[in-house]
């Protein structure tokens, strides 16, 4: 009686080993990628945030800013940092207190298209008007006999820097405002100030500090 030969398993194909090794490599790469993403998210960089509300045309100094460490990744380059703040730079838009300062909100002083003036209003202003508010400035000319003429819009869009009320005035109507206006409106504004026109400010609908 003959004994059958012992059946031996076929040798493992090389392609099967290569597929196994490739799977291991993919797992390792995936874990490494996740680790890099997590590590990058934990890395912070110093950038500036506004220490107070900054208005368009204002020269921005270190006193107007505070340094915060935030995790922004590649987006960090789009914000102003201690290394990128240019001396004499001005704000090109309103930057609210606490807001990170974008590079796009800063400009060269030579490119400034606005300036600030101080006006005194004919009456009190809304309590909603404060630093950073966008307002319309209206003027009503003083006509013969002291009568006030028809009001017109003097500056369609001005940004309030500060509001000062004279507490010594019982009526509470002695209010002065420092406002930022386009340079194109400076001449008309100065003319209204010099001819004692009655000035008023009206908050622009939809605009907030």
Automatic annotation (TrEMBL):
Residues 45-107 form the SAF domain. The chain crosses the membrane at residues 20-38. InterPro entries: SAF. It comes from the Bacteria. SMART domains: SAF (SM00858). Keywords: Membrane, Transmembrane, Transmembrane helix. This is SAF domain-containing protein.
């Amino acid at each position: 009686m003959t004994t059958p030969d012992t059946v031996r398993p076929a040798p493992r194909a090389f392609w099967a080993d290569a597929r196994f090794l490739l799977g291991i490599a993919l797992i390792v790469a995936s874990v490494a990628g996740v680790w890099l993403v997590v590590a990058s998210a934990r890395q912070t960089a110093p950038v500036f945030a506004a220490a107070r509300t900054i208005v368009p045309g204002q020269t921005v100094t270190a006193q107007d800013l505070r340094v915060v460490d935030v995790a922004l990744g590649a987006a960090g380059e789009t914000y102003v940092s201690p290394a990128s703040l240019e001396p004499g730079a001005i704000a090109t838009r309103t930057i609210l207190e606490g807001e990170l300062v974008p590079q796009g909100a800063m400009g060269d002083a030579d490119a400034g298209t606005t300036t600030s003036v101080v006006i005194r209003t004919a009456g009190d202003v809304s309590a909603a008007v404060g630093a950073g508010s966008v307002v319309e400035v209206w003027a009503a000319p003083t006509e013969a006999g002291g009568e006030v003429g028809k009001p017109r819009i003097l500056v369609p869009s001005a940004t309030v820097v500060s509001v000062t009320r004279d507490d010594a005035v019982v009526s509470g109507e002695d209010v002065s405002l420092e406002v930022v206006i386009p340079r194109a409106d400076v001449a008309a504004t100065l003319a209204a100030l010099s001819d004692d026109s009655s000035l008023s400010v009206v908050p622009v609908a939809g605009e907030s500090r």
